[in-house]
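Protein in question kept underneath.
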Amino acid sequence: MTKNYLKAFVAMAMIAAGFNQTSFAQAVEEENIIIEGYYGFPNLYTATFKAAYANSGSELDLTAGGAGPLGLRVEYMVTDKIGLGLDFGFSSSSINYNEVTTIVNPTTGNLDNVTYAYDFSTKKIGALVCFNYHFLDNDEFDLFSTVGIGYSNRSFDFTSTDPNYVPVSVSRLVPVGFKAGLGMRYFFTDNIGANLQLGFGHGGLVNAGLSIKL
């Protein structure tokens, strides 16, 4: 699936290169501010939760879900080619299920089946400082490389209605995150466009959204 995303990205970059040969205007220029929201995929933790629990056979009423990666980016063009920015991101994943356990009834001494609920969840919050180099730019397309580093903390929570279950809550020992990849913007008007990024780390393997240029 990632290969297909890469092929699509390369194709759009080639289209942008074709436009660049016949146009001298720039989609983004020095002192521009670009604000954009995005939604990324896949949510790897949601997929991992599903794979780990869905086929074990002992869980009842199992549900798994999540949100994101999603976020907000702001970039300031220091020059026509170099931009500095901030990237704020969030993602979450959870799995909930019931499990039947046989216990000894303390009153009657009989064996009873009791159903307990289990909830596992994880959340990630990040804020990265980013450096972007814009190496292909015309009046509609903007193609750039991006790297970023900053704060990123993922927490995990495990709870249950089982009275013998000990709740657990843990988070990263070193809350540091990074990102590296390629990005592209296509502006429908002078100030509004669509964005696409392909890479690793913060934001997922692929993310896309809307861009506003000030």
The longest helix spans residues 2-20. The two ends are 35 Å apart (CA to CA). Residues 63 and 132 are 39 Å apart (CA to CA). The longest strand covers residues 111-137.
